[in-house]
Amino acid sequence: MSDMKAPYLDPAVGRYLYAHTTQPDDVLENLILETREAAGDQAVMQITPDEGRFLTMITQLSYARNVIEIGTFTGYSAICLARGLGPGGRLTCFDVSEEWTSIAQRHWEKAGLSDRIELRIGPAAESLRDLPVQHNVDLVFIDADKPNYQTYYDLVMPHLSPGGLILVDNTLWGGRVADPLDGEETTRIMREFNDMVFHDDRVTSVMLPIADGLTLIRKH
Ligand SMILES: C[S@@+](CC[C@H](N)C(=O)[O-])C[C@H]1O[C@@H](n2cnc3c(N)ncnc32)[C@H](O)[C@@H]1O
Which GO terms describe its biological process (predicted)? Predict the structure, then answer.
């Protein structure tokens, strides 16, 4: 599966990586199936199981307690983030779609995670502007509309604790960001975003070839 979102990888290597990563449990497997039935072609928006495992592990490893997700869809990445939270940890999810997040909420309930996840429906930029000053966020996962990535980055940065993390999905954009002949609009948006992060001296960053590219950014 992971090779589907990583066309820049040799397909055999992609399958090997996926086969040697802890597989989804029943909760995640059911969500994958229901998302495919409900969303059809749009199910491709769901993160891949290997990326999900990474999100759980990075949340655990960073001891994050206050986590934000921008772009929830049917809730797969939210389950992975929420599972990495320690006691008292909270995940706040932002998404514009009642339809997709109603599926998410049902699966969070089944996963026993509803008490630690809060969902805010509406354009994420507006909701983020309403956050209290100094929200002390430990980890942010950005996986929503690409043209607003820079806006989300700018809006969460003041709330991020020193040492806090931002994870940004789709930063390789199918490998197209590295193709000088590709001038498509989203490719250009992702290139500009990646350049901006690279030149931001408030952070240290690493681009990981997980799924469609995941950038891990640490605020100094
Ligand atoms: C790629 S999907 C997220 C996938 C999700 N992380 C998962 O694991 O399944 C992108 C989501 O961003 C949401 N979205 C798009 N524009 C948005 C906006 N302006 N504000 C908030 N959410 C938005 C869409 O409704 C969609 O659910």
Answer: methylation
CATH number at residue 140: 3.40.50.150
Tokens of 144: 């929503």
Residue nearest to atom 6 of ligand 1 (CA): 72
Number of independent structural domains in the chain: 1
The residues, ordered by sequence, that sit 6+ positions from 20 with a Cβ below 8 Å of its Cβ are: none
Ligand 1 pocket by C-beta < 6 Å: which residues? 45-47, 71-74, 76-77, 94-97, 100, 123-124, 143-145, 148
> Domain limits at 172?
2-219
* Cα 70 to middle of ligand 1, angstroms: 7
Q: For a pocket test of ligand 1, which of 72, 76, 100 has the largest count of ligand atoms closer than 8 A to its C-beta?
A: 72
Sign of CA dihedral 118, 125, 83, 87: negative
CB neighbours (10 Å) of residue 43? 16
How many angstroms separate the alpha carbon of residue 79 from the centre of ligand 1? 15
